[in-house]
Structure formats: structure tokens, C-alpha cells
């Protein structure tokens, strides 16, 4: 891809890439809803069944660092099609699995494909749009990220209550087939760079480091939380490996597996930090809110999924309407306002207990969804708009690593808080109330970093998007 695409072609490309991203992000939530059913079907323990999710997570994060190199080596189009094809094969195999070990193994295959889709999509869209249109192009990432968890809960509930568990995985097959067929026709054909050398030492440091951190986070939900050796041991080992990779990446004369130098830029570095911290607020709430509805309010799995829809509606409203009115505002005002709206959205749950008014809770989720769009979408656009055409593949991989480490870590922290409160609480609602207050506090943390974002209104620069104007300010600072 040597130049940005025309608007119409960019729109078609966005739709195709969003479809691929949605099916991989949707799958995580669908399977989480079905874990209890799988435990019953296979007659297994909770610890063993949990590996259906853990195996996918570890494979997912393991391949993210490879996505940038693979895009350059065989071409971004071929890399994306390969990732979707691997995810398709893994989904089909999961759908015919006869034993729990088979299912876990096939979930690993599925994760190897799914982990590459989002960072490759980021790279393709960044290159295709150019810095002036990157905000519009990033809808291909933002919309699936917002809709995936909620739609997954609804679809998972329908499948678990009405169909056979195999359809939890087989439902991906027709979507992936369509994505492959259309992607083959629509994605720009760009030859790979066969001379690209593989960073062997970087791979030996970075991939085990990211996997160790993901594994440590997954183990923190057990007895002892983060104090358990099975949790803090991998976390420490992963941290050391990531530090060694950073030193290697800064000193190597060739191309490292991911480009850590982009974190030194204000837009990318601060944006990545805000994205990492959002794992402790909104992404953590994707665990707590469904449990609250089911444990405290006694809702079914399907009803819980339906009750979570207002959050996606709020996010869609931001993307479809509110975003246009905020385009000329300072980016710091938009992101800061989004953080405040997220805090307001959590407040009804912190105050509700078991008898909270349903309409107030639904309104809170609606406001939470608007806040999610305003606090995350401009940050994503800002971080990626600062990448050059050549930096896009490996820079997108770096951003994805931050995102995929921050999200499960935040979920694990809030899960640990919830479990500790449940162990000592007389009633479940007290435990959830305390956890929601913690979520509210975590939601406020990004406000400490927002002032460090570069900011200027789009109107003052004559450009069409805040991402472009912020990039322009950074380039001249």
C-alpha cells in the first residue's frame, strides 16, 4: 500500500475489516457465557474447564508481537486472510471437539488466528486512511470493540439456553467464510518484503514475556489472588523479559519485533497509558456487570445480555452523532469528559445494592457507553495517527500488546477485589457495592494523565479531525 485509498474504497475496506475484528472479539464473550455448560457437558472441574478461556488468551497474546513482522513479510492482505483462515479452522475444530483436552487444544489454534486480526487491521487501516482520516478509519476497530462483549453475551445466552454448545464455536464459521471471500476481493494487494529478517532474540524475549504476564493474570483469579506464587511468579518473570526486550529493541541495529521507540512520542505514549489504565475500569466492568445482574438480581443469562445492550447503544450514539459535535473540541476535553461520563455511569451501581431501580441502572449503562466512546476512541485515533506508513504494522502491534495486557489485568484486579469481598460479606450485594466503588475510583485514574495529551481544536488547524490536528501539533512541537 503506497498511498491512502479513495473515500469509497476506504469505506468498503473498513466494513470488511470490522467484520473480521468483530467475530474474533465476539468469540471471547460467547465462550465465557458457556463455560458452565461446558463444565457440565464434560463432567470436569472449574479449574480444568477454565483452560478453554485461558488457552485461547495465551495463544491470542502470543502471536500479537508477530503480526507486524508477518504483515511486512507476506503483505498485510495475505497476513489478514491467513489470520482469519486460522481462526476459521480453529472454530470448526472446536465445534466438533469430543473431549475437553481436544477443545482446549483447538481453542489454542483459534487464538493463534484471532490474536493477529486486530493489530493487522490497525496497520492496514492506518496505512489506507493516512493521518487526516485515521479517526474515521479507526471505527473499524472501535465499533467491534464496543459491540463485541455485549453482543457476545446476548448471542451466548441464546445459544446456551436454546441450542447445543457446539454452536458457540460453529457460529463463527459462516461469518469467517464471508469475511475471507469479501476480503480477498477488497483488501489492497501489496507484495511482501521478502528481505525482512525475523527478530529471533526479540521473539525469544517478548512473546514468552507477554504470555507469562497473561498467564499470571489468569491465575490471580484463584485462591490467594495476586499473592499466590502461581500468579506473581509469572508476572515477575514476564516483567523481566519485557524489560530485557526493551533494551534489545533500543540497541538493535535491525528492526525489532515491535517498535518500542514509538512510546517516546507524547501522543502514542500517553495514549497507550490511558488505554492500559482503561482495563481497570470499563473492561473490568464487562466481568462485574453480568455477575451483578445474575448473582444479586437473579437474572438469567439471556436477560443479562439484553440488559447490557444500553451500553452499546450509548457507544453507538457517540460514534454516529456526538462524535461529529466534538470534532472541533480540544482532544483533552473530549477524553476527560468521556472519563467523567464513565464515572457517572458507574455511580448508580455503586449506590443501588439489590433494590436499585432498573431504569436508573439502564441509564447508567447508556451514559457509560457514551463515556467509553469519548474516552477511548480519540485516544486510539491519536496514537495511530502519529505513525508513519512504515511504522504502522509494528506500531499497531505494540499498541495491541498494551491493550491486551491492560484489559485482562484490570479484569483480574477487580475480580480479586470482588472475590475477597464475597468471602467476607454477609450478602452478595454488599460485596458488589464495594467492588463498584473500586471501579469508580479506577475510572478516575486516567484523569491524571489526560492533561499530558497534546491538544488543539480541529477548527483552529483547518483539518477535519481531532486526531489529525493533534498529530499536527505534535509534529511542530
UniProtKB/TrEMBL annotation:
Region described as Disordered: spans on this chain: 457-477
Main location: membrane
Gene3D superfamilies: MFS general substrate transporter like domains, Multidrug resistance protein D
Membrane topology: Multi-pass membrane protein
Keywords of the record: Cell membrane, Membrane, Transmembrane, Transmembrane helix, Transport
Superkingdom of the source species: Bacteria
Annotated TM spans: 12-31, 51-70, 79-98, 104-125, 137-159, 165-186, 198-217, 229-250, 270-295, 301-321, 333-354, 360-385, 397-415, 435-453
Composition-biased stretches (Polar residues): 458-467
One GO CC term on file: plasma membrane
Family: Belongs to the major facilitator superfamily. EmrB family.
PANTHER family, sorted: MAJOR FACILITATOR SUPERFAMILY MULTIDRUG TRANSPORTER MFSC
Protein name, entry field: MFS transporter
Species assigned in the record: Winogradskya consettensis
Amino acid at each position: 500500500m503506497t498511498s491512502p485509498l479513495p473515500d469509497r474504497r476506504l469505506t468498503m475496506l473498513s466494513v470488511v475489516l470490522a467484520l473480521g475484528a468483530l467475530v474474533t472479539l465476539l468469540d471471547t464473550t460467547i465462550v465465557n457465557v458457556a463455560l458452565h455448560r461446558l463444565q457440565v457437558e464434560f463432567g470436569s472441574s472449574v479449574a480444568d474447564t477454565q483452560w478453554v478461556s485461558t488457552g485461547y488468551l495465551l495463544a491470542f497474546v502470543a502471536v500479537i508481537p508477530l503480526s507486524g513482522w508477518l504483515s511486512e513479510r507476506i503483505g498485510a492482505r495475505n497476513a489478514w486472510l491467513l489470520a482469519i483462515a486460522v481462526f476459521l479452522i480453529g472454530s470448526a475444530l472446536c465445534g466438533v471437539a469430543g473431549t475437553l483436552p481436544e477443545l482446549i487444544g483447538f481453542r489454542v489454534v483459534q487464538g493463534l488466528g484471532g490474536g493477529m486480526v486486530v493489530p493487522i487491521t490497525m496497520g492496514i487501516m492506518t496505512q489506507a486512511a493516512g493521518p487526516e482520516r485515521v479517526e474515521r478509519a479507526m471505527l473499524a476497530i472501535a465499533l467491534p470493540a464496543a459491540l463485541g462483549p455485549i453482543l457476545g453475551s446476548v448471542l451466548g445466552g441464546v445459544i446456551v439456553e436454546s441450542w447445543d454448545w457446539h454452536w458457540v464455536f460453529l457460529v463463527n464459521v459462516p461469518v469467517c467464510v464471508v469475511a475471507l471471500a469479501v476480503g480477498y476481493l477488497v483488501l489492497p494487494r501489496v507484495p511482501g518484503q521478502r528481505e525482512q529478517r525475523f527478530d529471533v532474540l526479540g521473539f525469544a524475549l517478548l512473546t514468552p514475556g507477554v504470555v507469562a504476564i497473561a498467564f499470571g493474570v489468569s491465575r490471580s483469579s484463584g485462591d490467594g489472588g495476586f499473592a499466590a506464587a502461581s500468579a506473581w511468579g509469572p508476572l515477575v518473570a514476564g516483567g523481566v523479559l519485557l524489560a530485557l526486550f526493551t533494551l534489545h529493541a533500543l540497541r538493535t541495529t535491525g528492526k525489532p519485533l515491535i517498535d518500542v521507540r514509538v512510546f517516546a512520542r507524547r501522543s502514542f505514549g500517553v495514549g497507550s497509558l490511558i488505554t492500559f489504565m482503561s482495563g481497570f475500569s470499563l473492561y473490568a466492568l464487562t466481568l462485574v456487570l453480568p455477575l451483578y445482574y445474575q448473582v444479586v438480581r437473579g437474572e438469567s443469562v439471556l436477560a443479562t445480555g439484553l440488559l447490557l445492550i444500553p451500553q452499546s447503544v450509548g457507544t453507538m450514539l457517540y460514534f454516529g452523532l456526538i462524535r461529529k459535535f466534538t470534532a472541533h473540541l480540544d482532544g483533552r476535553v473530549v477524553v476527560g469528559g468521556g472519563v467523567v461520563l464513565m464515572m457517572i455511569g458507574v455511580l448508580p451501581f455503586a449506590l443501588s445494592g439489590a433494590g436499585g431501580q432498573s431504569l436508573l441502572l439502564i441509564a447508567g449503562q447508556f451514559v457509560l457507553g457514551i463515556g467509553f466512546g469519548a474516552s477511548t476512541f480519540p485516544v486510539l485515533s491519536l496514537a495511530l495517527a502519529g505513525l508513519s506508513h512504515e511504522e504502522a504494522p509494528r506500531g499497531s502491534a505494540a499498541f495491541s500488546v498494551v491493550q491486551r495486557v491492560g484489559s485482562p489485568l484490570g479484569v483480574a484486579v477487580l475480580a480479586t477485589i470482588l472475590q475477597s469481598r464475597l468471602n467476607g460479606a454477609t450478602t452478595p450485594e454488599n460485596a458488589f457495592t464495594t467492588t463498584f466503588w473500586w471501579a469508580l475510583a479506577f475510572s478516575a485514574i486516567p484523569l491524571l494523565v489526560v492533561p499530558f495529551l497534546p491538544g488543539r481544536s480541529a477548527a483552529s488547524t483547518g483539518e477535519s479531525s481531532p486526531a489529525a490536528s493533534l498529530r499536527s501539533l505534535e509534529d511542530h512541537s
